[in-house]
Amino acid sequence: MQILNHSQMLQEYFGIVKKPDQLIIALAGNLNVGKSTLFNSLTGLRQHTGNWPGKTVDNAQGSFSYRDKNFLMIDLPGTYSILAHTAEEEVARDFICFGHPDVTVIVLDATSLERNLNLALQVMEITSRLVICVNLIDEAKKKKISIDFITLEKELGVPVVATAARQGIGLNSLKESIYQVAIGSRELNPTQIKYSMEVENAVLKLLPQIEKFRFDKLFNPRWVALRLLDGDEKFIRNITLHLNSQSRWAVTREAEIAL
Amino acid sequence: MITYDKSIPLSQIAVGCTCRIVGLELDGILRRRIQDLGIIPGTAVECIRRGPSGDPTAYTIRGTTVALRKEDASLIHVHLI
Questions:
Q1: B 22-81 residues inside an 8 A Cβ radius of A
Q2: Contacts of A195 (CB under 8 A, 6+ apart)
């Protein structure tokens, strides 16, 4: 049986070729939030486009450097939810859940934060290594929407950055936040949604069963419990598929760290 | 079946009226999709305009315009406000 490391896994499942020194950044968000504008202003002409393996969905990758680190940013298709229905959404969902990016950047539309936060809260259940980017703050200003970023950051427990990608506003602080999360110098404590008593009790019942598999390096056990409760069979199959290949990867990574 | 007290289907809301969602009767993928768009109990919805043949209808939900088919909107229960 072939043992995959992270870069081999990325190449095999997602068609992403990364240089050894590159950190992987996933760029996710709802549709029409200026994600691609942000992507273009961060990566400039250092881009590579293609398709996702086996899908007629565009895949754009771009690189940039900040301080002493090199980053490979993946521009994911727009999605409203982690529980996806279209091929585009599935690509985005699979990469966030199974691609194990070093940092996930969630781009939100400042003019409709309420609707956009759905995706952010879902991703916060999966990973703690994320940066929330509130884009289109220029549009929000025009519509006389003011956002209390300090409170938002405190309530979400992850870095929140305000940007207007079209004007190049906030890009440096976004890079700084990405950098800090990537090197682990920032304390992250994403707020977890508390569900109804019934759901929380069911999660508590499931957790010991899930923890037996000891894949907490790959998936947040609470998140797996919630997906099991959802009863989305296709998604559960997907988790199993990635688990088989990645428990191998996890073992090699453990070995790498030990060495 | 769940009954929603004095509620009416979203599909019966006239253009220009605003209502509040009290319950969803949708199932499965469509229910998930609708919820992902922010259509959940408590949300205010304004009926903006109707398509030429009376279907679909555009609604403003949380600052975004969303078009829904009559068959789907009829499964969303609302109270007029």
A1: 29, 32-33, 36-38, 61-64
A2: A203, A226
A80/chain B closest Cα distance in angstroms = 6
Nearest-Cα distance to chain A for B78, in Å, is: 19
Its pTM stands at: 0.86
- pLDDT (tens digit, 9 = 90+) per residue, A31-58? 899 999 999 999 987 888 878 877 778 8
Please give the tally of structural domains in chain B: 1
- CATH number of the domain located at residue range(s) A6-183 in this protein: 3.40.50.300
Q: What CATH number is associated with residue B56? A: 2.30.30.90
Domain containing residue B72 = 8-80
- In B, which residues are within 8 Å of A84 by CB distance? none
Each residue's pLDDT tens digit, A2-34: 556 788 888 888 888 899 999 999 999 998 999
Sheet with strand A47-51: strands edge to edge: A47-51, A58-66, A69-75, A22-29, A103-109, A130-135, A160-162
Domain-embedded: residue B3:
no
